[in-house]
């Protein structure tokens, strides 16, 4: 029998759900009271969407552009395929959906809108590795019995095109001009922070991929790539918003307190930008966290393999924070 929920009840339930999700918010800064006690402006961009599902007695639906492919930079990651970082993150997302069912019986569902295909050519990742990475993500979800999670890719939208044609069509139909992107970066603080974060990742990776080039040349080339990454990422966001108009938008990037996206932490990081596809994972005897592979190796952490493949590092002598300069580890 379908439970009848009035508007007042649906708002209370929706606020409880959002505040639970907000416990894991990934924020640009952590200096405002909203960190610990989300205000009405924090809830406002998402409340109607959550209420839509509650009032229809349906699972809350989240969308999360994430799990693209591993960084090609072997100083950061263990290899090209998902490892313990992805496993821990997927388990967290499933557990988050399960926890919501304790607040609201229909629970929650989450669609990973994998964006690896969207900008793989810009970040130095082959389409073959994007495909293999995605296949293993699906295998992991099946093995975990993560029944609240499914995956949507660019090729699910454009089935009769080559990968380059898919990317071209995405930008043509949903993309802004590069000039508009540059203007937004110049005049909007959040867009500037996003650009700087993406530019930093690209420079780090291309310094390894194209070590024969000067740092200045790489920085200049990656600046142009960063604008294109933002262009395609924004186009992907518009597409998935069109496909899932009522869904609650999560992000793996840090967001402002009152953003229309909820930045989400899936695994412990040293900074607000760390992801499993730009880091290796280490277990310190208590929990998993993300760090660059090169730093873990220099600290003497022990490599752990699963099924014959590198999975993560282990460090059990004393807390990792006592061994590292956090700023060095994340730069």
UniProtKB/TrEMBL annotation:
Coiled coil spans: none
InterPro entries: Isocyanide_synthase_DIT1, PvcA
Pfam families reported in the protein's UniProt record: DIT1_PvcA (PF05141)
Protein name: WelI2
Protein's organism: Hapalosiphon welwitschii UTEX B 1830
Source taxonomy: Bacteria, Bacillati, Cyanobacteriota, Cyanophyceae, Nostocales
